[in-house]
Design goal:
Ribokinase-like; Ribo/fructo_kinase; alpha/beta; transferase; Carbohydrate kinase family protein; PfkB_dom
Length: 308
């Protein structure tokens, strides 16, 4: 892989609102809540920001709706140094409402709107020069053309295999899974695939699979190769929103920087764990400098005591 190659992310963008509450409301109950943050979200957009914070050159192609707030979603991404190609569609931008209780348990409400995937008109304007990796989630038919381009151009691609993208099975995704460098899966996605899910994905031509395992870290599988990474210590978990997206983006950045699989996976797990210590997704992602400094600091347990 080329050290200076660019990572291109194509997919969804949303406005994420996190509501902190003491408990979930009962029927007909009015409950006071705190809005802890509102910011851009989306599984691919989140991964793009994490990739940038991990040190990579990053491009992002998304399409918002025509809401009043839509343009404002792109500004912080550009301020972070991401090369954003943005379009607009008639309709509502995706909204995600994260309900977080006092114990850190979350529930997610999602209105997809029109911003789950850009259309061909926007994608045809993309500059692919210098792109060394493509990451996407197949929320639109246009993804097939994007991956077809990668296949022809010899560009590695990865897929976030979101459960909502294969509600009727993997058959519609066979053409985009075959040849994928990496497929990222959470436990819900693996359960939805069914029996021997990793073996199924590898049999379809996926080169490697990364499974996120919550507090157990993540596992990488490629042929006979197996790597497992887990955070060393006991993190204080506040909000897990976007942690898997952080892991994906961070892993891609470190692979493009030349790190081997075990090192890239470990750093990605550490970054994702770091993100669980703050509210929201993007607001909790560390810079690489912050992550390195945190690794050199004394580890603390959930009670705040230094671990020996």
């Amino acid at each position: 892989m080329t050290a200076l190659a660019k990572a291109l992310f194509i997919g969804d963008i949303s406005l994420d609102t996190t509501l902190l509450m003491e408990s979930m409301p009962q029927p007909d109950e009015k409950l006071l809540v705190n809005i802890t943050n509102e910011m851009p979200g989306g599984v691919v957009t989140n991964a793009a920001l994490a990739c940038r914070l991990a040190g990579a050159e990053v491009g992002l192609a998304v399409a918002t709706g025509d809401d009043l707030f839509a343009d404002g979603l792109l500004n912080p991404l550009r301020a972070a140094g991401i090369d954003v190609t943005g379009g607009r569609k008639p309709g509502r931008t995706c909204r995600a409402i994260v309900l977080l209780d006092a114990l850190g348990e979350k529930r997610l409400l999602l209105e997809p709107g029109v911003s789950m995937y850009p259309d061909d008109a926007l994608l045809n304007t993309l500059n692919w020069r210098g792109v060394g990796w493509l990451h996407t989630a197949v929320y639109g038919d246009a993804a097939h053309g994007v991956i077809g381009h990668c296949r022809t151009a010899g560009i590695p691609w990865s897929i976030d295999l979101e459960p909502a993208t294969f509600m009727n099975g993997l058959a519609p995704l066979h053409s985009v899974l075959e040849g994928a460098e990496t497929v990222f899966c959470n436990q819900r996605a693996l359960a939805q695939i069914g029996r021997n899910p990793i073996a199924q994905l590898l049999a379809l031509g996926v080169k490697s699979v990364i499974c996120t395992l919550g507090p157990q870290g993540a596992r990488y599988v490629r042929g006979d190769a197996r790597h497992h990474a887990r955070f060393a210590g006991t993190p204080a978990v506040v909000d897990t929103t976007g942690a898997g997206d952080c892991l994906a983006g961070w892993f891609i950045a470190r692979r493009l920087a030349g790190d081997d699989i075990p090192r890239a996976l470990q750093e990605a797990v550490d970054a994702a764990t770091f993100s669980c210590g703050g509210m929201g997704a993007q607001s909790s992602y560390p810079t690489r400098k912050q992550l390195i400094e945190s690794e050199h600091a004394p580890a603390r347990n959930a009670a705040g005591n230094t671990e020996r």
